[in-house]
Design a protein that fits this description.
MetI-like fold; mainly alpha; about 260 residues; 11 helices
């Protein structure tokens, strides 16, 4: 049956996305045929190297280390950023220090700079990696949670205060549900940014993780491993966003409006 008879166009955005992927792989394969393998290996060579990563327990553990660094840093930065945002919201005396001094400073300081400082302070270790990622993510948490607090409905808070004098109950039933979309946005943004920072932190200041593997691959001119690590990171970020964050966003959008 022709596409016109069904009322559906034959060329859809999904087909266009698949076509772009095939074009990219074809261009990659063609380029790998005219250059040396250490410059650009073939897609098949990268697939073989990727399979070897999952079969080697030592290399597979580096993937888990990177994921652990990300989870720890996102959690630490969210807690610290949220506490600072609440302090700036409820304690007027601290608001200029947090909003006008600490946040701009943390937001502008380079992740590479934090990496070098952390290497001096903590040496080459997992602590260095988590420390660097956390400091880069804290401003995102402060800014997002500050916006969430600024958007609280004052009338609802006043009505809640008239019904209950317990600050904990007001926080649990009024403030916290109102902040759900902002909490989700903070974690989602932080997770994506964390992977970009983690590679640099692990490359220079870590002895575990995918960034550390990139450093070893660079020293050995192991381009299949370099590209395999990149594929792993893309797969981590895509699957997490597709199967965790997007379903959560749909739930939040139904209950609290579009995120």
């Amino acid at each position: 049956m022709r596409a016109e008879a069904t009322g559906r166009p034959w060329w859809t955005p999904r087909k266009a996305a698949h076509a772009f992927t095939l074009f990219f792989l074809g261009a990659w394969a063609a380029f790998s045929m005219v250059v040396e393998s250490y410059v650009m290996p073939s897609p098949w060579a990268v697939v073989v190297r990727l399979a070897a990563m999952f079969q080697d327990i030592h290399e597979f553990s580096h993937m888990l280390y990177s994921f652990g660094h990300i989870i720890a840093a996102v959690g630490i930065s969210f807690v610290i950023g949220t506490v600072l945002a609440f302090m700036a919201y409820y304690l007027n005396i601290l608001r200029p220090a947090i909003q006008d001094r600490a946040t701009p400073f943390l937001n502008s300081f380079s992740g590479v700079g934090w990496t070098f400082l952390a290497i001096i302070w903590f040496g080459i270790s997992d602590v260095t990696v988590v420390f660097v990622i956390s400091l880069v993510l804290i401003p995102f948490a402060i800014i997002n949670m500050r916006e969430g607090l600024a958007n609280l409905d004052g009338e609802i808070l006043e009505m809640a205060q008239s019904f209950s004098r317990s600050p904990w109950q007001r926080f649990r039933w009024i403030i916290l549900p109102s902040l759900y979309p902002f909490i989700f946005a903070t974690i989602r943004i932080s997770f994506g940014v964390a992977w970009k920072v983690a590679l640099t932190a692990e490359l220079f200041g870590g002895n575990t993780g995918l960034g550390y593997m990139l450093n070893l691959a660079r020293q050995d001119f192991d381009m299949p491993l370099v590209l395999a690590v990149i594929v792993v990171i893309i797969a981590f970020v895509y699957t997490t966003d597709r199967f965790i964050f997007q379903p959560l966003q749909s739930v939040l959008a139904r209950h609290h409006g579009v995120v």
